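Shipment paperwork, digital attachment
Item: protein structure file
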Amino acid sequence: MTVNPGEICLSVSLSEQEAWDLAQFLKRTGFADFRSQAVDDEEAYRMQAVGEMIRANLEVHGIKPR
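Attachment content:
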């Protein structure tokens, strides 16, 4: 896998249950949750975008809660 300069590639081993739980959390987390932990809207949107990247990657691996 090629990583662009300034990017970080994460790899984490999760059990199927841990992956499912994380996917459930990301499915249920909305902007208000991110905003309550962010310094401003811009940071909250960035945080939410990263959460969506992780959720999409879990989906690629068959972890897609409904």
